[in-house]
Amino acid sequence: MYVKPKKQLGQHFLTDMGIARRIAETLPLQGPYHVLEIGPGTGVLTQFLLQNKQLDLKVIEIDQESVAYLNQNFAALAGRIIADDFLRYDIEGIFGGEPFALIGNYPYNISSQIFFKALEHKDQIPFISGMLQKEVAERLASKPGKKAYGILSVLLQAYYDIEYLFTVPPSVFNPPPKVQSAVIKMTRNNTEHLPCNEVLFKNVVKTTFNQRRKTIRNSIRPLLGADFDKAGNPLLDKRPEQLSVAQFVELTRWVETQQKV
Questions:
Q1: Are residues 176 and 255 in the same domain?
Q2: Residues of the chain whose pLDDT is less than 50?
Q3: Which long-range contacts (CB under 8 A, 24 or more apart) does 56-60 make?
Q4: Does a structural domain hold residue 193?
């Protein structure tokens, strides 16, 4: 049975077994633990995950043709395949509410959405790794002051330590994507709760980066109106890409005091 890669699903099937093994090996060595693979496709990564007996593996796949292929070729996946859309699926109870690691060759067209959803379940997902578009991987791991540093960088780095592991060329995929790929890993840090209003923190980050070329003094206005204390915080003179996570926390606390005035 042949599975045709589908453009509308962002499918680019990895053909290099060595890279697939390296991705599987990004998972922590200590076990046993639960793992959810997103978009297994034809099981190139899945086969190496199944070799690790420390893993309680489940996979989630939206493409019915891929689901049929997996059922036909991977007997060990019997009862472990979720034929659904990760973005719409209620993942909280997949492993009975227990924590699980996330891994995959993530579809490029929805990778940011996947990470935003994982962030919503950060206390249940202590580890994430896998392959995605190089540009997005750089964005996730970028530090303040870099062009790639943005909303995803700040929101994810607030709760995860992120490592850019290695770059993957287009030639090892079918069909080859028009961009380079990269493998990353994300490990949950010790931050249970930020020392600020976390909903407001998210709004502050998104609001300021939506006008990233402006100083925060100008971009923050949608949250404060025109009459806020413009001289009250030196962070207002910076642009959002210059602020660390800790400084965004500080800015959020200041915004909250201004909103109460």
A1: no
A2: none
A3: 56/32, 56/95, 58/34, 58/82, 58/94, 58/95, 60/36, 60/84, 60/86, 60/89
A4: no
